[in-house]
Structure formats: structure tokens, C-alpha cells
Design brief:
about 130 residues; mainly alpha; about 85% helix; about 0% strand
Amino acid sequence: MSPLLLAVSAIVQLGLMGAIIAYSFRQIIKCRGHGTLVAIAYVTTVALVAGTLFICAGAFLEKLVSRDRMEDIGVVGTVVTFITGLVCGGTGLASFLRSIRGWRLVFLLQALAAFYLALILLYVAMGKPFC
């Protein structure tokens, strides 16, 4: 792949993840309170932010951390984001079945983003470089 295509792909991916995270935080702020859905949305959004930051800073981290350690971090990140995707999918399904407005789209987008991040982190866990 050419460097231009890699740059465009990274910008689009980061933009989509940023939009999903921003929409999730907007919905959390809009539906203030201490409800269960707000707490789940907050935890899953923070997990997505951590996964996105890890992927964005991956090339920098490779210079600081050994290859074996990066693979270990990739395995842990894959498991965490996969679990996040399952939680988001289950919560989205529950909010769809109970007709809870405003949260269905948040959890659907978060589930898709979490599974996408899990695939990228699985690639890292297999020992592939970020660059």
C-alpha cells in the first residue's frame, strides 16, 4: 500500500472512531444521572478511547517497548475490546427490545467499533508491526 493510502485510511478510521466516541459522550451528558445505561455507556466509551489511543500510539510504543511486550499488550487489548463489544451488543439488544430511546444507536456503534478495534489488536497480538 502506498503511504498516501495509508494516511487516508488512518485519517478516516480515526475520524470514524472519534465521531462514535464523541456521540457516545454527548449521549452520556444528555442523559445525566446514575442509571445503569449511563454507567455502561461510560465504561464502554472509556474502553474504546483506550483502545483507539493504543492503536494511534502503537508506532511510538514499539520504540519504547519490546516486541514480546507489545504482543502481550495486544492480547490483553484484544480480549478487553472483544468483551466490550459483547457488552455493547448485549446492552444494545436489551435497549432495542425494551424500546429505550437514545441508547440503541450508541451501543450499536460502540459494538461495531469495539469489534473493529479487536480485529486490529488481534493483528498486533500476532506480532505484526504498526508501521
